[in-house]
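Ticket #4471: structure output looks truncated?

Reporter: J.K.
Steps to reproduce: submitted the chain below (730 residues) through the standard prediction queue, then opened the result file.
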Amino acid sequence: MAGAKAKAVPGAWKSPVGADLLTKKFNVISSCKALAEGVHAITELRPAEAGRVCVYVRGADGVCSDLFPPPFNARTRVHEYGGACTEIIDVSKEKKEKFALIFSNFSDQRLYAVTFHLRDGRCEDVSQPAAITSADNSSDRYGSFFFDTRTGFLFSAFERHSQDGKVENSIIAADMKHIVAHLDVNEAGGGGVPTLGEHYTLSLPSDFATSPALHPTSNTLVYISWDHPNMPWDETRMVEVEFELKEGRVVVGRQEVIRGGDGKGEAVKQPRFHPSGALFFVTDKSSFWQIYRREEGKEDVRVTQGDFDAASPSWTVGTSNYSFIGDDALLCRATMQARTHLILVEGVMSDAPTQTELACEMGDVMEMECARVGEGKVALTFVASSPAIAITAATAVIEGEEAESQACAYLKEVGVQLSQAGEGAGKWEEVARQTDLDRQEVEGYEGYRLNDFFTSPTHITYPSAGGRQSHALLYLPQSPVYESDGSLPPLLVKSHGGPTSNAASRFNLSIQFWTSRGFAVADVNYGGSTGYGREYRNLLKGRWGEVDVEDCSAVASYLAKEGKVDSKKLAIDGGSAGGYTTLACLTFTDVFCAGASHYGIASLMSLAEDTHKFESRYLDSLIGPFPERKDLYEKRSPINHIDTLSCPVALFQGLEDKVVPPNQATLMRDTLLEKGLPVACVLFEGEQHGFRQAQNIKKALNGELYFYSRVFGFDVDVDDVDKIDIQNLA
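Returned output as attached by the reporter:
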C-alpha cells in the first residue's frame, strides 16, 4: 500500500477508471428467478453479442447454460421501450423436472418456446427455440405476459401494428394448454410445436393497456389503461374484467373501472392478487406512490406509510416494485432521496399493517422476489447495485416449518448484504455479478482495488428559483493516491434523461471516471424527477426547459457559494433529453463556464414531429399541445437562440442521428466560431442517436475531459487519438 497522497490540481489526477473501462463488454443483469434450491434463471443484456438479451440457467453446481443461442434476443417492442417478455413454466405438472421458457424474440417479435430439464440441480437437454406464434402476424407484439395453469391460457399486454400505421393496444387471452401438453412429452426443438390459440380481447377500448393480473381462483382479471395525452405517470385507471370459459372460448362479461380515470390525476399501477384473492395495487393518491389493498364496498386500506415512492415510472411494461412473502407479508422497494430503501410490511391483510425498514447497503435494488423452492424452503433473491458495487444477483434460502415467517425474521435481523455475499455474511450467496473488476487489484496501483477510487454520493437539498427546494446526488472527488493541492475542484453537473425519471445511487463508471480525477459531480434530480412524490413530479408540467434549467443552474451556484467547488470551473453535460437541458442551461443562463452536449436535442420542433405512439403526446404535458403552442416549442429550443451562447461548448454528434440532425450541431459550432468562443465539434461516422462504437465512446469521454482541461487550465493524460480540435482557444 502506498504512503502519503500526492498533491495535484483537482481534475488532473491520474486514475485507473479510464474511458476504456466504459467500453468493456460488461453484461447487465436485470432479473434473477429461483427455479429450485440453488437453481436460478438469470436474464442479462450482453453487449459483446450485439446487445442481445439472453436467459440462462445457473445450476446448483454453478454451471451456466444459455437457453437460446445467438441471434435470438429476448426483447419486446411493446410501447417501443419494451419490458418484461419472458415466462418460465413448469410443464412437468409441478414436479420441477421439466420447464419451458416462453420469450419474445426481438427481430420478428414472435413468441418462442424452449424446453430444458433439471436433474439433480443441473440444467440439461436444452432444446432449440420453436416459434409458437405465426410468422403471418409479424406486426403483433407481446409483453408483460404470464401463463395460468388453472385456465390454461396465456394473458398478455398486446400491441398490433397495421400497414396504415395504426397501433392498437389491448389485453388478450390466448389458449396455450395444448402447447404445454405438447411440451410435457416432447422437446420444443423437435418440431411439431403447435401455435398459440385464438386471441380474445379482454380490455375496453383505450390508447394503452398493460399490467394484466389474474385472480387465483376465479375468472377475474385486472389491468391498467390510459389514454392520450396522459402518460402512465399522469393519470391511469384500473379496470376489472369478469369472463367465462365456454367450450375453450373466452366470453367477456362485466367490465368496470374500479380505480382512477375520474380526471383527478391519479396514476394507478402494478395490480397484484394476494394468494387469498385480495387485490393490491399502487396509487399516488397520497402524492407518493403507495401500496393499497382493495376493500369491496369500503375504503381501500393503505398498506405502506411514508414519504417515499413505492413504484417507479412505467417506461417499460411488467415492472413490479413489491413481492408477497407468504400470506402475511410483502417486501417493497421504496425510493427516498434518490436511493432504494427496502420496506418489509407485515400483517398485510389486517387493517393496520406494520412496516420495518431493512438494512440495505445497496443504493439501487432492481428486483426482489420470495419463492417456494421446496417443502419448507423459500428463496429470497435480489438484483442490486450501488455506486461502489457492480450489479449483483444474490439469494438466501430459508428453511423451516414456517419458512416465510422465518424469512421475514431473517430480513429484519440481517437485511441485505450483497457486497459480502459469498464471504460468510449469513445465508446470502452470490449468484451472478456484472463484473469483478471493481474489487480486483489495479495494475500500476499496488495494494489498491478499483473500488478504492470510487466515491459514494450524498443527497443534497438546495434552494432553487421561486423559493422551491430541489435535489441532487453530490459526488465529491476521491482517490487513494491523490489529494487537492489546496484548490477547489471543478464541478460537472449532470442532467438525467427522460425527463420523467431520476438520478439514482447505482453503479455508474461514467461518474467515477470524473470523481477519481478530482472533479465533483452533481447528478441533479430537478423538478419533474421521480422519487419525491406527485407534486414534485408535476413541477415540469408545461415547464420543461425552464424548471430543469433553473434547478441545474441553481445547484452549481449553490455549491460554489458553499465553497465546495471552484466558481470559475462550473461545467454541465448531458445526452439526448439530458442534452437538451444542458444546451438550454448554456443558452438561457450565464452560470456555467463550459459545457458538453452529447447528441443533445437542440430543436423541440423536430422532437414533436417525429416520435412513436407511446411518447407522441408526451410533450403536450411537458410543454404544450403541438402545433397549437408552436410558439413555446420555438421559444424553448436552444437552436433558435444560439446567439446568446457565451461560454465554450463541446459538441459530440452522430452523423446518422435521425432524432437530432447533425446540422444542428454544426450550426451551433459555426455561430460560436463567429463569436470567437472556444468550440469543439466532433462528428462520428456511423453513429446514430447514442454512441455504440467503442472507439467513439472512448473519444467522446476523453475528448470532454481534454476539453475541460484546456478551458480550465490544467494538464491531463489523454492519448493523442482522443484529443479533440478546439477552435478559438488561445
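Triage note (M.O.): checked the attachment and the full C-alpha cell line is present. The two ends are 42 Å apart (CA to CA).
Status: closed, working as intended.
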